[in-house]
Amino acid sequence: MTKEKTSLLMDDGRRLDGRELHELRPITMQSSVLDRADGSCYLTWGNNKIICAVYGPRELHPKHLAKPDRAIVRVEYRLATFSVNERKSPAPRRREYELSKLIKESLDAVLFLEKFPNGTIDVYITVLDADGGTRCAALTAASIALADAGIPMKGFITGCAVGKVADKMVVDLSDVEDKDGQGDMPVAMNFNTGEITLLQCDGEFTIEEVKEGLSLAIRAIGDVYKLQREAVLAKYTQIEGTTNDVGDEEE
Amino acid sequence: MTLLVSKNQLVVPGEVLARGSGVDVAGGVYRKKVKGETEIIASMIGLVKIRKDSVGVVPLEGCYIPLEGDIIIGKIVRVGITSWNVDIRGPYVGALRVNSVLDRDFDSLRESLEEVLNFGDIIKAQITYFDRTRDPVLTMQGRGLRKITHGRLIDVDPVKIPRIIGKKGSMIQLLKNMTNAQIIVGQNGRIVVSANSVEKENLVIRAIRKIEAEAHTSGLTDRIRAYLEEEKKNL
Questions:
Q1: Could you tell me which of A70, A2, A21, A19 has the C-alpha nearest to residue A171?
Q2: What domains are defined for chain A?
Q3: Does position A212 have pLDDT exceeding 80, yes or no?
Q4: In chain A, N or C terminus with fewer CB closer than 10 Å?
Q5: Mean pLDDT of A13-34
Q6: Cα(A75)–Cα(A43) distance, rounded to whole angstroms?
Q7: B159/A232 Cβ within 8 A
Q8: Domains defined along chain B, listed by start
Q9: Residues on chain B bordering chain A, Cβ-to-Cβ distance under 8 angstroms
């Protein structure tokens, strides 16, 4: 066991993929990639590839699920059959149900659902290629897609995992570090207000390690948030920067 | 109150626009108390709108929220005994009763509603009643409200409709005058274009797509005029 732990760090202190302990993988995000969806996002995070589509607010069927005072959020997180090393059955497994539920609960916290009573907002997340940290990446992509759909929200949800590898706290675990490491702790938050909407912990941490991990996660989330903001605005800034008389024009 | 952004700045949800009290909020923002101080925060992607004593965001993305009085283009999705259900491209399905379509008595035993409006028909209608507890109620009694029988139907982003219409209808007039096309604009983001040739219809649709993509930029009417002049040479 000890041998395995140490093998996750190279002799020069770097991680197996050459990253520093507190370094994120390269991230790209693009909004409005799907024509049919109201909002969408394609995100790559290291070797993760995730596509997310948002439909709604729209009428909810079956009707008995409807809430008379607010809309509901339905999240479908799915791993594509080819996203993992061995073919995954396309039927949703326990893990996918769990992630769908916690992504839903995390998004619930920032959306103004009371504006659309009886309605629904459907979020479909498909992981095309999985390499650790997909729940945080999926949440990050989902909030871009929701903003792209024009659904009013308090702010973006941004996620990033931290964990313990070879007795050291590291940021943004890859699949190998996640499986063979000593623990992982995904964190997602509304970076503007500092409200944490997702915090899980798997493995053994001391109180100091949790504190250190949380502050590392918040710092990493700040970096991801900047990329998220750029991705959402890219669609508009690419066309032109000058904006003068918009907003006064009415029929 | 301290403003933290400038007019027409692009913002994303969660960005703080202003701090302090004594300011009204327009659409696209919400208020939150942070450490005893009120913050005004954007809730949509859009451009900052600053008025004398209010701050808001003009959204650049959004769905159609019905408003009483809106003229919309709807699609019949269900034919009932005495009413139709109409897809208005919003979160709710519109209800169209028979007595707000026909001005004569309707006998449901002798005739069927399908003869008046059938499944899939496109109509121009007006919203007469809507609050969030009940589905929107439509009418087809009014000037120009009718079944639409010809033309090309396109979907645009509902929040870009004010831009496609333009100041006092300037943009839509420009499109109509320069192409002689007939254009019906629904507030719900549906547009019906009909002209005497397919090429002209295509040109109008391309121009509308251009307006949609560049809705947040200034001097758009002039650019569209130049674009139409240029493209008309190729017709």
A1: A21
A2: 2-235 (3.30.230.70)
A3: yes
A4: N
A5: 93
A6: 17
A7: no
A8: 2-59 (2.40.50.100), 71-148 (2.40.50.140), 152-232 (3.30.1370.10)
A9: 8-10, 12-16, 28, 30, 32, 34, 41, 43-45, 47, 49, 58-63, 91-93, 132-133, 159, 162-163, 165-169, 213-219
